[in-house]
Amino acid sequence: xxxxxxxxxxxxxxxxxxxxxxxxxxxxxxxxxxxxxxxxxxxxxxxxxxxxxxxxxxxxxxxxxxxxxxxxxxxxxxxxxxxxxxxxxxxxxxxxxxxxxxxxxxxxxxxxxxxxxxxxxxxxxxxxxxxxxxxxxxxxxxxxxxxxxxxxxxxxxxxxxxxxxxxxxxxxxxxxxxxxxxxxxxxxxxxxxxxxxxxxxxxxxxxxxxxxxxxxxxxxxxxxxxxxxxxxxxxxxxxxxxxxxxxxxxxxxxxxxxxxxxxxxxxxxxxxxx
Length: 274
Prior knowledge:
Number of helices: 9
Number of strands: 8
Helix content: 55-70%
Strand order of the largest sheet: 5-4-7-6
CATH class of the domain at 136-236: Alpha Beta
Largest sheet: 4 strands, antiparallel
Oligomer: single chain
Strand content: 15-25%
């Protein structure tokens, strides 16, 4: 019971903690927020942020309980002599060999990659030949209030007959209070997004709006939205300096693939492969 209370308390605090912050300790071993985050990302294949907010706390609780259980089992395994058993030593040696091989391959690949150089002349030529790739599309910065019914949206719209900063502040307050969407606590902030990133009804409306205005209710598959347009950015061509690093990495990888193919052919010729 004592352990369960500690876990629940830890979960309630996780959203405001630093990654290195200790959530719980098990016989002196710390389990940190970073440990939980890594386990969550592994369990969801990097998609934890796509888990509905209402399920994230429960998911965190389960993962933290699993990490605590592992520490308890590991502690008992040490006490009962499992670490000195033949079975453990055999399995541990297999894992060591596997890890040693993987690390050696990774370091070899990194060293080979570091040998591949890309000149600025090569990068500039790629940029000039492929300017169409380096365009930043139209984008907008918007907020929204999501509610279930049109009646709710119409009612909220009556409270937004304001202008300027007063309108923005009122919109943020209503989003925090009334929006059922995951961005509600952030004042409905959706950040910047480009054409086509939102569902069609939402996308068409927001890109037709004027900065500093609020839309009429917009119906989508999620409910009814009131949209506040905070900013607009017109499409632009990215300069060479803005994309130079990206181009260098791309060309380096292309050269690396060619080099590795040649190196592997030589290694195969020297090796005994049956």
